[in-house]
Amino acid sequence: DGFQGCDPFSAGGCSRVCTSKAGCNASTLQAWNAGLRAAMWRLKKEILGENGTLICNSTPGPYFCDVKNGSNYDPFDGNCPCDGTNDERGGGNFDHMQMVNTVNAEGRGNFLLLTHTPHANDKDTMLRSIAQWLIATDEYQYLGTGFGYECAGQGWLTSDPTINASFHAPLGPPLGPPTGTDGCEVAPPCCHKNSMCSPTCTPQGPCVRTRSFGTGTRVMVNYSSGATCVRWSNGLNVSTAGRDKEDGCAPQ
Q1: Distance in angstroms (rounded) separating the CA atoms of residues 208 and 178
Q2: pLDDT per residue as tens digits for the range 71-87
């Protein structure tokens, strides 16, 4: 179930395996972690081979081997066997997707991101994740989902016509990165100590991002309220309501 609590590349290692009341001595745990890392490298090099792709999972993601969700990660330094990461339960998290976009923009390699959405049997959650994913996606990013734990509703192969239509509607390449309102500006680090150091310490209104695609499809996500709207170029409009039950595609 991913590396949460069991990360062989972190300083603490996979301490979750130590369930004995007697505890685990340091040398035993160190050997166990070394064995797990060796097994991952063997999976990558010998079993998958040069044409294989090893995706590493973590909750929350994304996962980069050495410093998860931090600023010093480097999946291309030769110490990480992962070719990409699954953002379990990410559902189109903008910051998580941008982390992968940023590291790929450096031009040293291509790191894959699989955005996971729980789950396809929840219509609103699935439709919201489609809009959020379209806002932030770039090359080597993919959207996937599972099904409810009860395995009802035919799992991923949902029969919902709106979800199915969204995966078949014309899209085209993005015409550029998403645009955002002033409320989407990231507060500078100084705000943690002094909330008056910058005007952006206080959100300047709601955060709304939009993006357009080659066929004329347009996407809007209100990250403050949760409302989304995808106006597909074939005339289909798909919206999810915000916290005040407003229609995501209603004129603002």
Answers
A1: 10
A2: 455 788 788 888 998 88
